[in-house]
């Protein structure tokens, strides 16, 4: 038996408030229930399943536009429900929180979604209602269709999007960390002081992208700032992650690529003056498990039969901003400098992917690897990814829903637990405390420290 891993693998259920997410075409599979995404009990049942499997969090992706790059339209996207229709993910959280006690939530919200001032309150509200279980996946967007839908001719340039996101975060830190001092809320009935006005401060932010003069509307919640997730590992993306991210979600095809990405992220975090161990790195992966190896491969064949490789390609076209419908199966693809997800384009370019290769690869797994086999084989593979890839855990994509999650909970989790590489019970405390074990709030080494009362940078952009 291999040497013990010596740590618990973090596992989030990767999902989206939609039918097709990563593994496209599975909605036609007879056991798939993803067409019920509109029903509240679909989500509350899922939350209960995930908590039974001691998942750390449900991680919800989101987009604000449609995938209209492939074939210059939405034909495949609509026919195969490729992240269209897509409902709002944040609205699901209260319902799922009400039927669970420990499950965390990592919800994707684009910084172009709404003003930082109103977003700050929305998140604080959820941090209160979940008692500190909310996380935010910070994305800057990559779809021209999303930009056009809100009145821009196309999206802001790649690196400028991150500059804007940096300032968005700065405003949020001021609101979450700097507006209400510790102890501002007294709740003192005898002296009729709910909150001490001397300890509540207006934020005055006058920057390049945002102007804010106002008080944070919510009193401090357990975590104040949600656990900060980030995905996107281009050069500029990494600089952004190094400043802000606590959990970085990477999309990598193999363990060597995971190791390279992980080392690059941790080096960037250290260069930004933070502790590299204050960041967790999660890779996307699909798991197909069964009691027997033959059973697992039977499921793989079934899932492949249900899949829609063309739908996978329509998704991928939008991710890298290239219309693959224009190319022959074996044509060389001019990847070039993408204004969409640069890290995704770079991987495909470095591997010399043709359309034929992409159709095969995207049929199942999407841009993520697949671990197939018995619980022992899958556990071996996951442990190898963590060890050799130098990562901390996974965002587990769904293939057939809820089968992918129930198989993981019922088959893989017990095997990992016997090896000591998965928790046997939830710890207490907020999502942040359960991930890092150092309390509910961001550590003093985090960028947000500068925006706390008494912090050296408070009011720097005034
Ligand atoms: C693994 C992964 C998952 C992502 N998930 C989302 C998502 O759910 N919604 C979204 O708008 N952008 C998503 N993105 C895009 C990035 O967050 C980012 O905004 C942008 O595309 C730039 O990425 P780059 O720095 O790699 O070029 C994702 C990117 C990666 C690599």
CATH class category name: Alpha Beta
What profile does the largest beta sheet have? 8 strands, parallel, barrel
| Approximate strand percentage | 5-15%
CATH topology value: TIM Barrel
Structural class: alpha/beta
Count of beta strands: 13
Helix content: 25-40%
| Helix count from the secondary structure assignment | 15
Radius of gyration: 22 Å
Mean pLDDT: 94
One letter per element, helices H and strands E, the order comes to EHEHHEHEHHEEEEEHEHEHHHHEHEHH
Named at the architecture level, the CATH assignment is Alpha-Beta Barrel
Count structural domains. 1
- Per CATH, the superfamily is Luciferase-like domain
**3D shape:** globular
For the biggest β-sheet, the strand order reads 1-2-3-4-9-10-11-13
How many angstroms separate the termini? 59 Å
> Which ligands, by name, code or SMILES, are bound?
flavin mononucleotide
Which parts are unreliable, with pLDDT below 50 for 5 consecutive residues or more?
456-462
Main features:
eight-stranded parallel barrel; about 35% helix; about 450 residues; TIM Barrel; alpha/beta; two-stranded antiparallel ribbon; binds flavin mononucleotide; globular
Written overview of the protein:
This protein is an alpha/beta fold. It has a single domain, classed as Luciferase-like domain (TIM Barrel, Alpha-Beta Barrel), CATH 3.20.20. It is 37% helix and 15% strand. The chain is built from 15 helices and 13 strands. The chain has helices at 40-52, 75-79, 93-98, 116-129, 144-149, 158-178, 235-244, 255-271, 293-306, 309-320, 342-350, 355-362, 375-389, 403-418, 431-436; strands spanning 10-16, 57-61, 104-110, 134-139, 185-188, 193-195, 203-206, 211-214, 227-231, 247-250, 280-289, 370-373, 393-397. It has an eight-stranded parallel beta barrel with strand order 1-2-3-4-9-10-11-13, surrounded by six helices. The protein is globular and about 70 Å long. The model is unreliable at 456-462 (pLDDT under 50). The chain binds flavin mononucleotide. Keywords: Flavoprotein, FMN, Monooxygenase, Oxidoreductase. This is N5,N10-methylene tetrahydromethanopterin reductase. It comes from Gemmobacter aquaticus. InterPro entries: Diverse_substr_monoxygenases, Luciferase-like_dom, Luciferase-like_sf, NTA_MOA. FMN binds at residues 62, 108, 158, 162, 234.
């Amino acid at each position: 038996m291999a040497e013990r891993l010596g740590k618990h693998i973090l596992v989030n259920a990767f999902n989206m408030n939609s039918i097709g997410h990563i593994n496209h075409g599975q909605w036609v599979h007879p056991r798939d229930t993803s067409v019920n995404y509109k029903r509240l009990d679909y989500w509350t049942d899922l939350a209960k399943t995930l908590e039974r499997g001691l998942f750390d969090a449900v991680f919800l992706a989101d987009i604000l536009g449609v995938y209209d790059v492939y074939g210059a339209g939405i034909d495949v996207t609509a026919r195969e429900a490729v992240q269209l229709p897509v409902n709002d993910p944040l609205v699901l959280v209260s319902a799922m929180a009400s039927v669970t006690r420990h499950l965390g939530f990592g919800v994707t919200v684009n910084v172009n979604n709404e003003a930082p001032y109103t977003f700050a309150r929305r998140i604080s509200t959820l941090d209160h209602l979940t008692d500190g279980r909310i996380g935010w996946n910070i994305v800057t967007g990559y779809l021209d269709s999303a930009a056009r839908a809100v009145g821009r001719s196309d999206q802001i340039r790649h690196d400028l999007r991150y500059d804007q996101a940096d300032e968005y975060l700065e405003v949020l830190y001021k609101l979450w960390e700097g507006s209400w001092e510790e102890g501002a809320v007294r709740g003192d009935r005898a002296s009729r002081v709910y909150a001490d006005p001397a300890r509540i401060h207006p934020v005055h932010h006058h920057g390049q992208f945002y102007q804010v003069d106002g008080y944070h509307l919510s009193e401090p919640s357990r975590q104040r700032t949600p656990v900060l997730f980030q995905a996107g590992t281009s050069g500029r993306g990494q600089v952004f992650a190094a400043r802000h991210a606590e959990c970085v979600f990477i999309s990598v095809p193999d363990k060597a690529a995971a190791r390279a990405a992980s080392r690059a992220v941790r080096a960037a975090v250290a260069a930004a003056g933070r502790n590299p161990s204050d960041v967790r790195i999660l890779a996307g992966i699909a798991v197909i498990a069964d009691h027997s190896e033959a059973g697992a491969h039977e499921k793989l064949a079934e899932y492949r039969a249900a899949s829609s490789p063309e739908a996978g390609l329509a998704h991928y076209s939008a991710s890298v901003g290239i219309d693959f419908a224009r190319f022959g199966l074996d044509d060389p693809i001019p990847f070039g400098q993408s204004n969409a997800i640069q890290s995704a384009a770079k991987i495909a370019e470095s591997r010399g992917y043709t359309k034929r290769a992409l159709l095969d690869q995207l049929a199942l797994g999407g841009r993520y690897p697949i671990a197939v086999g018995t619980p022992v084989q899958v556990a071996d593979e996951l442990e190898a990814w963590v060890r050799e890839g130098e990562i901390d855990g996974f965002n587990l994509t769904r293939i057939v829903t809820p089968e992918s999650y129930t198989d993981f909970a019922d088959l893989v989790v017990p095997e990992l637990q016997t090896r000591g590489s998965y928790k046997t019970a939830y710890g207490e405390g907020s999502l942040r405390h359960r991930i890092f074990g150092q309390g509910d709030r961001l550590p003093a080494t985090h960028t947000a420290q500068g925006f706390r009362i008494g912090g050296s940078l408070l009011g720097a952009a005034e």
